[in-house]
């Protein structure tokens, strides 16, 4: 459940009515989480609370978005909530993996909060294994989207204008029965469950994902956040090319530690 931060002696819950909730799936390459980092850092979003749950591995660390020594010692935990009222945007950042068999309870708690807080829609940033694509998915861009029926009515036309590719369904039994198609997101973590639950509960949800592999996934994060920006226009593009915003995203200070320390010179 959502727990607001105590500020100024009070802990009144912020109003998220009509806001867009942006969140990552813990998926291959942590691409969604890295993209969320870029959004929070660039928009200088304010932490307004945290998401208390026993479904995630517990963790604590320093402020990942520290800009000075004064705020570098602030603590962060496994699921925190940031807000930017001027853009009607609320962000849930997840920083640790799910505990086994806890996907469904987390989905139920999260969607219950979405309904109670009256968020207008949910956007999930995710990823999927590039090596498990079928022939159709190998063509064109590695970026895909999914819309629940309720959101399809509102923005389906815009997605067509943007010339985005919807995530293809694949054969349920390849080579045996190719006519029965199912949604398959290998490496997507909670993505499919969250999407199907939102469809059944009438929640407006979009999933934006990128096919990728484990490794240095910073370029994948930039590609995914630029993809998101084409739709939501979180930052203005300085050039005529509306998709060329990579240089405008602010990399958080914590990314210096993504790959640990450098190789010791003694090795050479």
Keywords:
single chain, 268 residues, alpha/beta, eight-stranded mixed β-sheet, two-stranded antiparallel ribbon, 12 strands, 27% helix
Topology:
Blueprint: E1 2-4, E2 20-24, H1 31-43, E3 46-51, E4 60-62, H2 69-72, E5 75-77, E6 79-84, E7 89-94, H3 103-117, E8 121-129, E9 143-147, H4 149-162, E10 170-173, E11 177-182, H5 191-201, E12 205-212, H6 218-232
Parallel strand pairs: 2-7, 2-8, 8-12
Antiparallel strand pairs: 1-3, 3-6, 4-5, 6-7, 9-12, 10-11
Helix pairs in contact: 1-6, 3-5
Alpha-beta classification: alpha/beta
Most strands sheet: 8 strands, mixed
- Give the proportion of residues in helices: 25-40%
How many angstroms does the end-to-end distance come to?
A: 51 Å
Helix and strand sequence: EEHEEHEEEHEEHEEHEH
Please report the number of helical segments: 6
Strand line-up in the sheet with most strands: 1-3-6-7-2-8-12-9
pLDDT below 50 for ≥5 consecutive residues: which ranges? none
Would you tell me the overall average pLDDT? Answer: 90
Range of strand content: 15-25%
- Beta strand count: 12
Question: Given the C-alpha coordinates, what overall shape results?
Answer: globular
Radius of gyration: 19 Å
Your description of this structure?
The chain is an alpha/beta fold and 268 residues long. It has six helices and twelve strands. It has an eight-stranded mixed β-sheet with strand order 1-3-6-7-2-8-12-9, sandwiched between helices. A hairpin with a 3-residue loop joins strand 10 (170-173) and strand 11. The protein is globular.
């Amino acid at each position: 459940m959502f727990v607001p931060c105590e500020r100024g002696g009070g802990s009144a819950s912020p109003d998220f009515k009509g806001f867009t909730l942006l969140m990552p799936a813990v998926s291959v390459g942590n691409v969604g989480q890295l993209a969320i980092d870029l959004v929070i850092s660039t928009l200088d979003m304010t932490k307004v609370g945290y998401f208390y749950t026993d479904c995630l591995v517990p963790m604590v660390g320093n402020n990942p978005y520290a800009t000075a020594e004064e705020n570098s010692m602030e603590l962060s935990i496994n699921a925190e909530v940031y807000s930017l009222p001027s853009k009607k945007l609320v962000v849930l950042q997840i920083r640790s993996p799910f505990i086994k068999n806890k996907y469904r309870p987390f989905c139920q708690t999260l969607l219950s909060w979405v309904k109670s807080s009256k968020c207008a829609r949910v956007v999930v940033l995710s990823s999927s294994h590039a090596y498990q694509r079928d022939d159709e998915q190998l063509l064109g861009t590695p970026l895909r989207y999914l819309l629940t029926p309720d959101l399809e009515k509102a923005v389906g036309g815009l997605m067509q204008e943007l010339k985005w590719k919807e995530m293809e369904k694949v054969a349920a039994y390849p080579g045996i029965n190719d006519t029965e198609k199912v949604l398959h997101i290998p490496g997507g973590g909670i993505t499919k469950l969250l999407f199907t639950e939102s469809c059944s509960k009438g929640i407006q949800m979009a999933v934006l994902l990128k096919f990728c592999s484990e490794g240095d996934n910073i370029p994948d994060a930039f590609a995914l956040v630029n993809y998101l920006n084409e739709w939501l226009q979180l930052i203005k593009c300085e050039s005529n090319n509306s998709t060329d915003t990579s240089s405008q995203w602010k990399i958080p200070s914590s990314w210096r530690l993504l790959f640990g320390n450098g190789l010791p010179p003694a090795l050479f």
